Amino acid sequence: MSLQRFINQALSDWMKGGRPDEDIVISSRIRLARNLTDIPFPMIATREQLEKVVSKMEKILERSKDNQALGNLELLRMEDLSSLEKKVLVEKHLISPLLAEEARAGAVILSENESISIMLNEEDHLRIQCLFPGFQLEAAWTQANSIDDWLEMNVDFAFDEKRGYLTSCPTNVGTGLRASVMVHLPALVMSKQMNRILPAINQLGLVVRGIYGEGSDALGNIFQISNQITLGRSETEIIEDLGNVAMQLIEQERQARKQLLESSRVQLEDKIFRSYGILANARVIESKEAMQRLSDVRLGIDLGLIKGVSSTIMNELIVLTQPGFLQQYAGQMLSPDERDVRRAKLIRERLLTT
Length: 354
What we know:
- This is Protein-arginine kinase.
- This protein is α+β, with helices and mostly antiparallel strands.
- It has helices spanning 3-8, 47-63, 83-91, 97-101, 137-152, 186-190, 194-203, 235-281, 287-302, 313-320, 323-330, 336-353; strands at residues 25-34, 73-77, 107-111, 116-120, 126-133, 159-160, 164-165, 177-184, 206-209, 222-227.
- The strands form two sheets. Strands 2-3-4-5-1-8-10-9 form an eight-stranded antiparallel beta sheet, covered by helices on one side. Strands 6-7 form a two-stranded antiparallel ribbon.
- Helix 3 packs across helix 11 and helix 9 (287-302) runs antiparallel to helix 10 (313-320).
- The protein is globular and about 65 Å long.
């Protein structure tokens, strides 16, 4: 396994189909924040101290390389990656923009199928992430918990009997758990029901963000929903609460799709097939428009209106059409205008091969 494999392997497991409720839930993620007891938090630690975190993890990986349960894991240092390579890993949701742009002595441990990502020296010493396709919160939690147990056998985590796991940000103190689902909700957006749903979700202690998390936009009607509270609640309670809300959203989105078909079928078909026509023929397309058109096409596929196109096309192209990937495949830096041309070409070719 090598860095180039992670960059060149376009499709991570979370982008692939055949998973529970995949028509609405694109992916499920569990993230655990952990810090080592004998090293200051990253924001105040020296580079030398942060290098110790990476060295500790390298030794742990070496001792565990034959562990069948963990699979093949590889550590990549941020300083060894180009800015473009880091951008590609961000676009694949394997590392955060913070790790890519600002972390000192930053690194990431990746599994071969990219379902496991352990960021080192981001906001905390360790950010354990498990990313699964479709609605699989429980499965993602099971894997994350096993990784957490494995690490605790090798290092001492900063832990307080009353407060739980200690983290750089007070909002992560307690379990240190962030659970999230990435959902595609075009019908709720079209019917303007999201304006009512979002405040209700916030009142339940959950937060709604865009496709790349905090500070990002909900491009292509894709939203990330995650817990806000980590203190005073168990991991099981957090996951169950998020899972219950996700199930309600799934049901509401399906009902909204049914109502749109019944009340505005011609207008809905027109919107979907216009977007398909543009994607199949455009020579230039910006990222924001591409995301919206892909959302329309994916809705058409899920409703059975568009035949012969893979339902995973949106999962794939939301990554493949991002600036980092476009430039990686071009083998050179591209201007925004050049990226728009290549994005249109890539989408045309992908539609023709499904």
